[in-house]
Design goal:
With 502 residues, the chain is of the alpha/beta class. The chain contains 17 helices and 21 strands. The protein folds into 3 domains: 112 residues, CBS-domain, CATH 3.10.580.10; 233 residues, Type I PLP-dependent aspartate aminotransferase-like (Major domain) (Aspartate Aminotransferase, domain 2, 3-Layer(aba) Sandwich); 138 residues, Alpha-Beta Complex (Aspartate Aminotransferase, domain 1). An 8-stranded mixed beta sheet has the order 7-15-14-11-10-8-9-20, sandwiched between helices. Strands 16-18-21-19 form a 4-stranded antiparallel beta sheet. A hairpin with a 5-residue loop joins strand 5 and strand 6.
Amino acid sequence: MNLNTFNALCLPPGATLHEALARLDATAQGILLVTDAQERLLRTVTDGDLRRAALAGVSNEAPLSALPAHPPHTVGLQASQRDVLALMDAQRIDHVPVVDAAGHVVDLVTRRELSQRVYLSSPHLGEDEVALVQEAFTSNWIAPLGPHVDAFERELAARVGVQHAAATSSGTAALHLGLRLLGVGPGDVVLCSSLTFVASANPIKQLGATPVFIDSEPQSWNLSPQALAVALAALQAEGITPKAAVVVNLYGQSAEMDEIVPLLERYGVPMLEDAAESLGATYRDRPSGSFGKLAVFSFNGNKIITTSGGGMLVSNDATLIEHARKLSTQAREPARHYEHIEDGYNYRLSNVLAGIGRGQLRVLEQRVQSRREVFAQYRDALSGVPGLRWMAEPEGHQSTRWLSAFVLAGGDGESPQARRDALLDFLERHNVEARPVWKPMHLQPLYAACRYFLHAPGQDVSRALFEGGVCLPSGSNMSAAQRARVCELVAHGLELSWRSAA
């Protein structure tokens, strides 16, 4: 419910039973909150309370304070969704007020909303996937490889404007293969965006190389060309040429390739473009994933399109993709027997899952448009909320808005992270899945000892984005009612945060 609806549920103890009945009819929530002049909760009133009063002969003009005492069942601001549901079940109630430490009523959770979860980014299947999967079963091509895999590789490559593609079991597998194909091994240094999911960095470590992390720039939130230039110059002065650079396109938006590509070329560092989150995005009318020596996509269940689990490695270099296919099928040599001269992996995508991917790829444009509409609705509905800054879409960028993300400002003695966490707790209590922005790699215990280059002296952009950053539900299959519900809850949760900090 929105803040106006919540406020309409609050009545003073001097309000009459007749006024309470009218308010119950108008709000249609089945409950009212009786509060004193300081907004402290005194009790709740339901339809049942008013019916029992009428049967007992209490006048409609009697004040609510005339009703039998009934201490409310409440939870505090730190209560989880599980705590709320446990209280509902124990007391056989469908509404639980939330009060702060001073007893002020600040929120109301209903059983109905706890049965209707809004997910961050759920799979969205179309009409063609079932037929394509059935074709795989009918033809008995259900193991890795097959005609759907071949077709998916061709269709994906054409969609992103590259010549060759190799389908893999996951985006992480594609990253691992890509780094190995670029020759990354023990003792090497690999540059990597810090603001990303850990899968961007782990293959570097797993190959025995050392990651060096690069900060974000403030506008697009992607890898900072300014920090990259400093890092490349510093490493060159130490006699180090990075073996590769993993450049991440964050939350469906390309990095600033016009600045990054020439920098890497000048120092002779090949780019592995991590486009796991940005299929369908463009940068200056060129598809995301077409800038690197190699690039990877992910088809995990929460991505723009999904194969349940899967990925793709793409390149204009036929030799690299041919080698990727070999490595992903245990590096078997073309011999009658099983011959191996290098180690490989079981990384190929199944024909069944590739059929799902082909169906999903056919509706990519619609999925992107739907996510952009989700973002636009959020932006418009929350335009008047103070202290909220959306992830920008700089000139020349066309983002998929895979996830709609914003960053909160601090103030009034409270940190952005405290407000972020309070909002996330609030949303989760109402059964809405939201997440912090990725925790940067340079702040992860796993990579605490690695070097990190700031966007500017004293300006850690990635850290600030993490501390105040929130990702909202962004699925292309969200209903209009779900979108409106999230907008109302975010506005209410942030208003509560500002009021609590004041």
